[in-house]
Amino acid sequence: MATSMKTTMAHGPSVTHPWKLVDAAGKPVGRLAVALANLLRGKDRPDYTPHVCTGAMVVVINAEKVKFTGSKETDKIYTRYSGYPGGLKRLTPAMVRAKNPALILRHAVSGMLPKNHTRAVLLRRLKIYPGPEHPHAAQKPEPVELRV
Fold it and tell me: Which SS3 state, helix, strand or coil, does residue 37 take?
């Protein structure tokens, strides 16, 4: 007699989104981005479902203190194009860090997420702050120590 196993699928109303706090100081950008993407998607949870946003709300502090490995700090180039002639912008990580340090981490995490509507939904749940202060103390985010 064969036994049947029941597979449960997460759906909207039954999903809870806990708040997590991650300190990014001194961590490599790419490895941290993979860990944050997994937290956002909910891959650390037993009720993970690929097409449902089962992940946590993630607050990242000290984003200005992330580091690049190797020579990426000087060699890496962030490009964007406006669509107009002469509209190609090229920025180094030092230039991005001076203007808005959160963009480095947001760009890296965005590249680790699915390339569909889910990406926009998940990125809204990612809160990145350059320093150690954040306005989400009322949500009582649970500190998470990531092994990166």
Answer: helix
